[in-house]
Amino acid sequence: MELQKISSKGPQNSEETAELVNRRINLLTLHLNPVQELELLRCAGKMKAIKVSTEALSEYMRGKHRDIQEKVFAYFNSRPELQTPIEISKDEHRELCMKQLVGLVREGGIRPFRYVVDDPAKYFAIAEAVGSVDMSLGIKMGVQYSLWGGSVINLGTKKHRDKYFDGIDNVDYPGCFAMTELHHGSNVQGLQTVATFDPLTDEFIIDTPNDGAIKWWIGNAAVHGKFATVFARLMLPTHDTKGVTDMGVHAFIVPIRDMKTHKTMPGVEIHDCGHKVGLNGVDNGALRFRSVRIPRDNLLNRFGDVSRDGRYTSSLPTISKRFAATLGELVGGRVGLAYSSVGVLKIAVVIATRYSLLRQQFGPPKQPEVSILDYQSQQHKLMPMLASTYAFHFATLHLVEKYSEMKKSHDEELIGDVHALSAGLKAYITSYTAKSLSTCREACGGHGYAAVNRFGILRNDHDIFQTFEGDNTVLLQQVAGLLLKQYREKFRGGTLTVTWNYLRQSMNSYLAQPNPVTARWESEEHLRNPNFQLDAFRYRTSRLLQSVAIRLQKHSKTLGGFGAWNRCLNHLLTLAESHIESFILEKFIEAVKNCPDENSRAALKLVCDLYALDRIWNDIGTYRNVDYVAPNKAKAIHKLADYLCFQVKNIARELVDAFDLPDYVTRAPIGVQTPSEAYTQYTQNVGF
């Protein structure tokens, strides 16, 4: 503008002209700044090469439960006939899964059920190892111990533990978790199965009132289950015109097959859900009940009981509080899915990264072909994913620790934190893993399409992780709702719980204008500073929270609460994801600081920086829209993230080797052999 003024007014004083020109050039330099960009690359080029000890990093990653995982791997390594083959029918896979579970428990001496309550972290470590052998086995084990066994232990009382614990533990009592119905999955309060108390016989009568109330997708039901924890509406007889009172959803132990003959019990109908997209080693079935009578003692009565004369007692005053307490005790399933999903991501990243290091394609004229991981496009596909895998690992480790602490303390504030974190991490991580499995397959080209290389099996088996234990979209809405609740609490002067503490400070920062000075800082030291990274993540969350709260208030006046929520739904989902990303980064930064080995800490810092800057760059529009990041800084973030991607590539083999997965778990020729060696193995397998 100033240069336009000069030309329109004609020649000016030469000193004045020079001053204006220099001022304009300086302003342009703040945006273009090629000198500082070159300086950034020179600084990055001086970055010391990191020497990574795979053993030291693996020891830090896998921690105190490494031994129990090695015991699982050693058992299956010693029993190759129990390793799941690539080609197997549904019925054969189901029987193999049962043999795997029974063998692991009775021969291998691994007793997961003993850790479900007393040491959940150890249980989840076993689950990760088992799931990496065969995801169907991991789910079947989860149904037996976490769902069926967990419901008995967590929702029942001492009499139930005494009667069922040993049978569940040694798999003499294989069981099911019958919550989901044909017409109701996420909306558990809408379940229609009824359990009516009969005071004359001291029994409950379990009934499926209509087709929509048939229990559906019930694991272990089609073939192996002998018991089911059935969630049903407890109906008590009254002496008024209503005849019965609905006391809400409760859990009941219902025998579904005879212990000796394995025949279906009277009044119980069982149907096979058939072949699925994945997890065909799990025998999902449908259950229908026609006036099935069970003893009154089969009510899992921790939160509500019925006396011999039909009187109801509970320490919790309302149906909603009892319902919340019941579901709160089942949060372990979500914790396990988030943790297991990271295990699946590890397998895929290991296979794809190793292949990309070995596979050579094209190169400079008259020179050897180069590794495809030397291509920037391949680095950008896989290295941020590898960084995310590390980030998710530490985040879910923290979640497991909090869950273990919750099971011991029963602290109400901690219960709320674990509920929010498990919902958010399960939704975020399983969605990310599902997308990444396809990316890994594509990154391995045609070889990735071979079944032996596991991507198709992993993708199909993992896909349902996004749905069971809570649909991901529903879970993210729960997180958004809790954020809004904390937001209202902040402005009422209330105390924020641990998970949400950062909102108090970052909301204050958001309500102020972005600092025009720090918005332009672009040095490598600043961009790799964890304080800048975490502040940026939290600022985005606070901004989203503030803006969606205003939108909801505006739309609720014309659309009502439900309509306003639906109008802002995508905004709310983005808010929840942003909050979870902030939490993940926070735990990653803590893990870097706590790493005792200097070289491992340097490697983790590099990976953490890539995770943070890649995420910031992916949402750079949000930061630019409010001038939180100036144009020159945005460009510097992009360039540094790109260079960190290259640096992580240089230690990629050590990083994936630190996951320390056995060869038969990552049993992909493309991940351990050159393509020509893999081809030789393929031809041998098919008889050429």
UniProtKB/TrEMBL annotation:
Gene Ontology annotations for the cellular component aspect, listed alphabetically: peroxisome
Q: Where, subcellularly, is it found? A: Peroxisome
- Gene name on record? LOC101265227
The segment(s) forming the Acyl-CoA oxidase C-alpha1 domain are 328-484
Q: Which domain of life is it from?
A: Eukaryota
Q: Which GO terms describe its biological process?
A: fatty acid beta-oxidation using acyl-CoA oxidase
Mind telling me which CDD domains this protein's record contains? AXO
Spell out the protein name for this chain. Acyl-coenzyme A oxidase
- Which Gene3D superfamilies does the entry link to? Butyryl-CoA Dehydrogenase, subunit A, domain 2, Butyryl-CoA Dehydrogenase, subunit A, domain 3
Per UniProt, the keywords (alphabetical) are: FAD, Fatty acid metabolism, Flavoprotein, Lipid metabolism, Oxidoreductase, Peroxisome, Transit peptide
- Predominant place of localization: other
Query: What are the GO MF terms of this UniProt record?
Result: acyl-CoA oxidase activity; FAD binding; fatty acid binding; flavin adenine dinucleotide binding
**Cofactor(s) needed by this chain:** FAD
Domain (Acyl-CoA oxidase/dehydrogenase middle): residue spans on this chain: 176-292
The family note in this entry says: Belongs to the acyl-CoA oxidase family.
Give binding positions for FAD: T180, G219
The Acyl-CoA oxidase C-terminal domain, residue ranges? 529-672
UniProt-listed InterPro entries:
ACO, ACOX_C_alpha1, Acyl-CoA_Oxase/DH_mid-dom, Acyl-CoA_Oxase/DH_mid-dom_sf, Acyl-CoA_oxidase, Acyl-CoA_oxidase_C, AcylCo_DH-like_C, AcylCoA_DH/oxidase_NM_dom_sf
Q: Active-site positions, per UniProt? A: E469
The record's listing under Pfam families reads: ACOX, ACOX_C_alpha1, Acyl-CoA_dh_M
